[in-house]
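Monosaccharide ABC transporter substrate-binding protein (CUT2 family), Xylanimonas ulmi. Tokens?
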Amino acid sequence: MKRLASRVVAAAATATLALGLTACAGGGAGSADDGDASRDPSDITVGVAMPTQTSERWIADGNSVREGLEAAGFEVNLQFANDDIPTQQQQIDQMITQGADILIVASIDGTALANQLQAAADAGIPIISYDRLIRDTKNVDFYVTFDNFQVGVDQATSLLHGLGVVDADGNETGETGPFVVELFAGSLDDNNAHFFWDGAMQTLQPFIDDGTIVVGSGQTSIEQAATLRWSQETAQRRMEDLLTAHYGGGSGQLDGILSPFDGISRGIITALQNAGIGPTLAEGLPVVTGQDAEIASVALIDQGVQFSTIFKDTRLLAEQAVTAAKAFAAGQTPTPNDTESYDNGMKVVPSFLLQVDTVTADDIQSVLIDSGFFTPEQVARGQM
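Tokens:
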């Protein structure tokens, strides 16, 4: 496969970066002219590195990106690393040596790919960071993601809604509690986890300060709340330990849990139910939030077990990754709609951010089914 010439990419970046970086909004990540009649897309290989197949979300992302790239005529090399950092490093190394022209990377550890990305930069290969920001390297050319700070805001607002502190529109109801909650965070090596946490804590802190919300364990730092690799099993063990240490094994007051991801939510719920709490919201199960609208959790929301999730339409994220790849393939620079938020420690990475939706039982039909993301039958059985 032919390699994108680094001089062409560099020249295009120099000519268009100043214009692109002034954009504060846009309809898509690509520049106005996404085509290049002189280069057949079938001559361009895009390497796609995804973190794992243990989450249905990442399987869907990988498939959506591959399908979009193939529909645009690109050759695609899609690899999943099963949450193993050396495996992902080796996969990216192989993509480079096998002649990838563009790389789309959803990292396992956003700090662990500096050598691979330096090799890619030396070969003139543009790097698109996909959903998880790659850190501590200048060799990231573009970032496509969701508004991750807003995800945290929405998760915390949903928790407050479930507790009755705010209504469905986020307006305070006058309810003062106190409500006892616990806080869970994502994996510290994932940059997004920090954005989710910051958004959530900015939202919750005024209610913690005035006593409406009480964190029963006192564990209020992200380091205390973190869940390595976003593991459901790790979350279940931590919830079990919290129940034993602070809630009489399940007999004490516990009103809600901030969870940043549906897999973590299911681990939390399993621990709660095993302790004899619940088994549904109507029967005393605490309010539990989530993220990613995984079908198993959507079914739990429909059944009145989990309270909410944050829906990030990964079909749209895949479209933006494809649009960015098309721009790079044409020797152009993708157009960001955010040039301030995502500092990876070495540079502010031009980014395209997508919006999200909060889903409770009342929103499953309008947000997930009417959009074609799930069918009623899938929701009913909790499986694809």
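The first strand starts at residue 45 and ends at 50.
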